[in-house]
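To close the chapter, one final illustration. This time we ask the reader to focus less on the individual chains and more on the assembly as a whole: which components sit near each other, and how the overall shape emerges from the parts.
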Amino acid sequence: MDLTPLWLSLKLAFMTTVILVIMAAPLTYLLVYVRFAGKSFFEALLSLPMVLPPTVLGFYLLLVMTPQGNIGRFWEAVTGSPLIFTFAGIVVASLVYSLPFAIQPMKAAFEKIDRRLLESSYVLGLSPLSTFFKVIIPNAVNGLAASAILVFIHTLGEFGVILMVGGSIPGETKVASIAIYEAVEALRYRDAAMMCLILVPISYLFLLLINRLTRRQIYGA
Amino acid sequence: MRRHISHVLVIALIVLGLSLPAAAGEKLLLAVAANFILPAEELTEMFEARTGIPVEATYTSTGKLYGQIVKGAPYDLFFAADEKRPNLLDEKGLCDTPFVYARGQVVVWTANQALCGAAGWQAVVKDPEVRKIAIANTESAPYGTVAMIALQKAGLWDALKEKYVFPQTVAQAFQYAETRSADVGFCAYSSALSAKGKKGCFYEVPEAPTAVQTACILKRTENRSAAERFVAFIQSPEARKIIEKYGYR
Amino acid sequence: MELNVSIKKKLPHFDLEVSFSCRKNRLLGLVGPSGAGKTTIIRILAGLDRPDEGRIDYNGEVWVDTEKKIFLPPQERHLGYVFQEYTLFPHLTVAGNVAFAAAEKEEIPPLLRRFNIWHLKDRKPDKISGGERQRCAICQAMARRPRLLLLDEPFSALDAVTRQNLRAELRALKGELSIPVIHVTHDISEALYLADDVLPMVGGRIVRKWMVQFMLKGRPPAQQRAAGDIDGYGGDSRDREDLSILYDSLKVMQ
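The assembled structure is written out below.
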C-alpha cells in the first residue's frame, strides 16, 4: 500500500506546527499585553477560522491563492512559482486553518502569568523584548506545548481546506485525509481502512500527551 | 394558555415531519455525471414545464455517484459518463438495462489566449509555460480516465507528472482552468462551448476514446412511471437536439 | 542623594496629590489605610504608572516631568522593588533569581550569604516559605545595586511571627544601606518601628505632619477622640475626619 499520503500528512503537520507556534507567540503577546484600538475586532478575526466551515475557508483561500489572487500573485513575484496546488500552498492554508488553535492555549498560559512578574523584570532592567523571552516564554511552556500538539493533530485531520486548494497531487498535496476520501469514493475500502488504522493511534497518542500536560497545570506543576 | 400553545406547536411539527416524505415521493431524483450539467439543466427544466413533475439532480463524478448508489442512495435515474458503471449496476441487479444517451469528447481547454495558436493539444501540454494541467480524478471521473489514456498513448503521461492537478470532477477541471489556477484543463467539450468556454480556446484530443455515456433507471425507484416518462423524453428528437447543441453526438 | 516627588493623579475614588522628599540613609514610611493611593505612588516612582501632572527627580536626574514630557522607563531608573508577592520568577531557582539582576557572577554568593539564603540557592520559589521568599526578593532587588529601594507591603502576606523576624532583619539592613528606602504599609506599628520619617496618607493626600507627632504620643485613640484633643492641635473638620479614618484602620503602638 502506498504510504506517501501518510508521510505527507505528517510532514504537513510538522511544518505547520513549527511555523505556527513561532508566529502565534508574538500575536498572542499583542492580544494579552498590548492595548490598541479595534483589539476585539482583531481578536475575533483571528478566531474566525475556528468557526467557519472548512469549505468556506477553502473557498476564500482558493480565491486569494490563485495566480490572479492577491497572495498568489505576491508569492509568484517573490518565488517564481505558483502557490495554489503546491505543498507550500497547503502549508499556507493550514497556517490559516489552525491559527486560532495555536493562539488559544498560548493566550491562556500568558494570561496566567501575574503582571507583577513582568513589572519586576522591567524594574530589574529588562526590556519588554527580553522579558518576553526570559520571563513570559519560560513560564508559559505548558501552554506552548499544548498549542503545538493541538495544531499538530488539527492539521493531521485537515480535509475540506486541502481539498479545495490542494489539487490532490500524489506526493505533493494528496495527504492522508484526501487519500482516504478518494479511496472510499472509488470503493477501495481496504486501502481506506489501512490508512485510518494508522492515523487513529497517532492522534490518540497526541491527545494523551495534551491531557497530561494540561492536567499538570491544574494541579500545579 | 402557554401549555395549549406548546401542544399546538408539537402537533404542527409532527404533521410537518410526516408530510415531508410524502412531498419527496413526488419528485424525480437524478444522479448525473458532472460533464453533463449544462444540457441536463435545460432538459430537466423543459421536462418539468411539460409534465409538472419536479426533477432534482446531483452533479458529481460518475465514480462518486456509483459509490453512492451501491450504498443505497435514493436516486431514480443514473446518467453516467461511461458504460462501465451502469453495466456494473446492471450486473448487480440494481438497475434496468442501460441505454446510450450521449457520446462525449474530452478536449484540452485554456483561458490563456497566448496558448491558442499551437499546433495541437500535445504542443500545448508540453509547453514550458504551462505549469499546471487539470485532469479530473482518473479513478472516479471517466473524462479523467480518457484524458489519462490519451496522454499515455501520446507517451506523455509520465513525462508531465509534475504538472498534474487532480480535481474531483471534470466540471472542477474546467473551473480550475477558467480561473487560471491551472493553465490548461482536460474538460468536457460542452464546457468549451459554454459562454465561459468561448472566452478561451480548445483543442481536440483524438487519442482520447469517445466517452460513451449511458444511463439507466434504478430498480429501487418508487416513481417508475415518472422515470420512464423521463427516459422517453431524453430519447425524443427534441431532447436530442438540445443534447447535440452542447457538443455531444 | 535626594529623591524629590511632586505628583497629581486622578483616581477612581479621589484625586491623588502628594509632595515629599526622601534623603539617602533614611527610610520613609508611607502609612495609611488600603486604597489611600500608597501603591499608586510607589508604582509611579518605579515607572510602572504615570502621573497626570508632576515631577520626580533623583539626585538631579529627572525621572518624570509632565510639562517637559520627560519619562524615564523603569529599566533605567535603577531601583529595587519588592512586591507583597510574585516578585520572584517561578521558573528560576533562588540563585537564578538573584542572578537575574546581578552585574557580575562573583557578586552572587556573597549576596546570598548576606541575606541568609545561601542554603536555599538551588530551590525554586514554590519550595520555600513565604518569609524566605520575601527575603530572597529583597536580596534580588539589592543585587541590582539600586539607587532607591521600594517596598510595597512586603510582609503583609506573612504570619505574625515571620513578620516580626523580617521587620527586625530589615531594620538591621537599613542601617547598612546608603540609599533612600520607601516602605509602604497599612500597619502603623510597623511603620513607626522601621521608619525614620513617616508620611501618613488618607484619600490620596498626606495628612498634616502634626498628626504624626500626635500619633507618636501613643495615647489610646478612643481617649483622645473623647477628650477632643484633636481640636487642641488646630486643623479643620476635614483633618479631624482624616484622623478618625486613620485611627479606625490603623493599629496604634501602645
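Chains B and C do not touch (no CB pair under 8 Å). DSSP finds ten helices and ten strands in chain B. With these observations in hand, you are ready for the problems at the end of the chapter.
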